[in-house]
Sequence to fold (259 residues):
Amino acid sequence: MLEKGDRLEVAYIETIRNLVPAYESIWSTFIGHDGKGRMLKVDNLPGEESNKRISFSEYNYTCIESIICMKQISDNLVEVDFAVPSSYISALNNFLAFQANAGRVRDNIKKMLELYLAEKVAEIMNLLEDLYQKRNTIIHGKKLPFRVEEQLMLIPKVKGKGEDDFGWNSSMSWQDDNSELIFVYDFYKESLEEIASLYNRILYNLAEPINEIIKVYNISLRFPDEQNAATHPSASNNESGTNGGGFSGYSGYDGYKVL
Fold:
C-alpha cells in the first residue's frame, strides 16, 4: 500500500518496512496520499478529530523522515583523513546530525502520544529516556574525545540515565580513562535499531485508539485510483495538511503546490 505514498515514502519503502513496519499499517488505514502531496480526505470526521488526524500525520511523517536521515548517515560512513581538516568536519557534522534527528524522533513521538494516548505519555516516554540522555550529552555537552584507527572514528560509550551506568559524561575530562571505545559505525547501527524499534512499538500502541476512531467514524480511505473507478469520482479533496505528502508537497518535487 505504501507504493501509493509520496516520493520519499516510495523511494525508501524498504527502509520503512524493515525498520518501522507499523508506519505503513497506520498510514494505509488512517492517512493515505492523494498523489498531490496531501493526505487523503475523510469527510465524516468532526472538526476536532480531523485536526488531530492532520497533526498526527505530520508528526509521524517527521519521525519517519528522521529515521530515513539516520539510516542514510549510518549507511554512508565516511573515512576520516586528518590530513584534510574538512574530512573531520564532515564526519562530525554527520555525527551531530544523527543525534539531532534522534531528538526530533523523540519529540514528535511525544506529540503523537499527547494526541491519542495522553494518559500514557510519561510511561511510554520513559522508554526513550536512556537514549535521550545520551543524545543530550552528545549535543549539549562538551566534545566527545575520540580516536581514529585506520581512518575510522571510535568514541567512548556514553552514560545513560541510570545511576550505575558507566560511560562518558560532560563532567569528565578528555584526559580521563576512556578505554571502552566503540566504532562510530557500530554506534550508528545500534542506536538506529534501538530508536526504530521503540518508535515501531509506540506506533503499535497508538494503533489501538486510532483503530477505534476508524471504527467509530467508519473511515475507509479511497486512494486516487479507487476514486477514479467509482461511479461518482468527482468529490473534491480540500483537506489541508500533508501526510506522508510532505516531501512532494513542500518541496514541489512532484510539481504540486500545497499552500
Remarks:
- Residues 229-242, 247-259 have pLDDT under 50 and may be disordered.
- The chain is about 55% helix and 5% strand.
- Residues 184-216 form the longest helix (33 residues).
